Automatic annotation (TrEMBL):
Name of the featured protein: Uncharacterized protein
Organism encoding this protein: Streptomyces sedi
One Pfam family of this chain: DUF6055
Signal peptide per UniProt: 1-37
Keywords, sorted A to Z: Signal
Amino acid sequence: MFRRLRTLPASGRRRRGLGLVLALATAGVLTGPAASAGAPPGSATTPETATAYPLATESDPGTRADKQTRAPQFMVDAGAETGNVAESEHFAVRWGDAVDAVAWGRENRGIDNYPQWVADHMDEIYAYYVDEVGFVDPADHPVGSQYRINLHLCGTWSGDFLPPANWAGGDDIGLGHMCLPYDKVWDEWVESHEFNHVLQIYAVDLNIAAGHGGGWGAGNTAAGPVWEAHANYMARMKRPEVVVGSGYIIDRQHYRWLSQETYYGDWMLFNTIRELYGPDVIDQFWYEAEQGEHPIDTVKRVLGLDHEAFAALIAEYTSRQVVYDFVDGDLIRGDLWTGGGDYRPLHTDPLQSLGGDRYRIADSDAPHQYGHNTIQLNPSGDQVSVSLTGASDLSGADWRFRLAAVSPDFSVRYSEAFGPGETAGFGLQGGETHLMLVVAATPSEHRNYPAGQVGVGDPFPYELTIQGASPAQ
């Protein structure tokens, strides 16, 4: 998770050919997501103005070891222990006065200098995301280029100062810092997630420097959900086998994208975009999002998608989840189908019979915007036809549906995507055992909903005419 932060205007070189940012922008109050429990007192508020810092220049890799170490002001103001520190090239790992992290590491982990091991481990995480994946390079950031990222071994201070928690944010000068429990399991998941929050902070600063006002930060109401979804998307690059632990919940796929109930697991849309457009465009969203813009509007604008093209993207995103048809699909399936064996649906949505060959989705199960239903059909012959009629009065209501024929080995064959009033004709072929129907809500009018609230959204119910098959119950 990440805490409310004070970010600073910055400039520098955008990664992957995004161009050199030469202009400094001076911003007003810049806020990120809500503060987490146990975060520094100053994290819940932001100053009236942000300070402009000198232009960062493209750095020589040989100078990176010259970064300085700085204690955040909130620690100094609190009179907290700041002298216990282990340094690596990019990190300063601190521990407090209540737990001797060096002695604890020797006794419990068999590591002679545990804080130094943590610092070196985090340099490996840094190298993976900055040098190999190529997200934001702190060398391009005016503060991040000068100072080591502070990592607090939380739970080692007395007086309940920095209690055990997982968070990351920006300190009083916009330098990234992280809180991780001193006794955590270093499994490359949580530390990757939190480190990417630091990179997101720097990305927002580069966005400001480019004249976009802060994009998905700087007070954007969607910041909390999209930062978490993206941080898990990034963490899964290091640990692609983590799915259940990422917050992806099988029986909540009808919820809207970035809902309070699903946002940690909503990295799946980024997975789809990466497969269709390449990974660089995900970074581009961060650099080019306009201030206050909802991420869906950013996706449409940056990719140049009109409504039909965006609806096709959502149809692709949702139908691929029948078997998790991605480059990392084997690893996703390994975490979801834990018992192994042949393909079997993990979750299906029931339909209500209207008599004859007509059916309706219950309002309680109907997809919200960009959510979807998965319905198993039992064919009675070689050919199945499906048509959809909308049953929503919401302006811009629209849907896309697609059929998927699945074999026991999880190989999949898709129909085209269809809209209301159109009829899909499809059927199983030799060796295919499951016919799955996926229906997604693809409204042409995007609705912004308040963040941080459960049960918020609008269902988009629909009716189906199905011939040659019956829905499994």
